[in-house]
Amino acid sequence: MQQEGVWLIPIVESAATRQSWIVYPHQVKEEWVVCAQTVDGVIGSLPLVAKDSQVMMAYILNELIENAVKYSASDALPVRIQLTHRAQGFRTNITNWCTKYQGKRTLNWIRGIHATPIGEHYIKQLWRSAVSPTPQSKLGLLGICHDYPVQLNARLGRIPVHTDLCQITVSVGGNWVVAT
Amino acid sequence: MMPLSNDYVVKVTQSDVTLSGVFRFASLAHYDEVFHPIKALFDHPSPVTIHLHQVVFLNSTGITALARLVIAARSAQLTLTIKGNKDAQWQHKMLGSLCRLYGDLHIVME
Hints:
The complex is a heterodimer of chains A (180) and B (110). With 180 residues, chain A is α+β, with helices and mostly antiparallel strands.
């Protein structure tokens, strides 16, 4: 058994509210609108926050849930969405089952995001995605870090020796957008 | 509470494109299909303006699809203007990035 990953976001202090949801990849793949409905449901649980914060949360949750669904090892294994929020900010954890290979790949991708200036990294990826015939944009996690002052991290759960699967939790935390 | 489920409109006239609503498609292929009438405008040499004022939400796949339109306009050496909503913070960031893909892209925030 081993644990791997980076986990820099401190536990949200008291006076925070934590809620969880479950969605199954097959539900989303059968009807993609389920992803949107899930995001809307999570955002609907928030206390009144500014419109820009709602858009930020929608973007972050949408990208994280899309990724979790796309890279889930099985359509029948749950994706867990956890949201902790307080007056100043939030933290969301999205956990899904993936292959060990995919889990390590995601960790490396996130390390790459942290290792290079985000502006340049984003533009290069945007250009690559725009000019190549690849069906994936690979902008989701990059866009979260590029567009919003948040922290992005991930960790792999305990890796059982008898299976090729593991759980990965991708976490994003930050403050609410201050209206300008 | 703003509704964020898929609900979008793409309106194309001779040289103007108006996008409105929420764009949350899962794949670039789906966006390519929805944006096809816009790309068809690039076959003619006239300038094109894309209005985004009423776009509430665009996922990262949608941003890539928009970037593909910008690259297509660049390849066609077309004058492309994108008008964004100055009150939508996310549009400022996104359009700033698109600008870096094509030096002659005109961005107007209003």
